[in-house]
User: What shape does this take?
Amino acid sequence: MHHVSLEANLLFREITGNAERTLKWGEDYAIMLEEDGYERPFQSFSGGEQMAAALAIRLALLKQLTDIRIAFFDEPTTNMDAERRENLAMQISRITHFDQLFVISHDETFDNFVDNVVSVGN
Assistant: This one.
């Protein structure tokens, strides 16, 4: 749990672009955000913060607990503003622990950060 929490915090800081806050994943599996000496529960996060925190925990779990080297992301930028979408796309592009990363999205933010784009139309 400790290693997953540390890894998730690093990922969360990179995704959000804010090193002043600390993401914590507790023994009771609660996700908290510490900023300015106060802790906030997951339920009080904005939609973008919730998505970034959940993604950071997921990636940290995959990295720490499995040998699976493929990850899928389905609409990971939901509820994120443009800056956070850009940070998330950049962060996903920097992940080296996985052989293949698949992003399924209506958001074109990822186009500049991926090796291949497959567009599906009517």
Notes: The CA atoms of residues 75 and 117 lie 15 Å apart. Helices lie at 2-16, 47-65, 82-94.
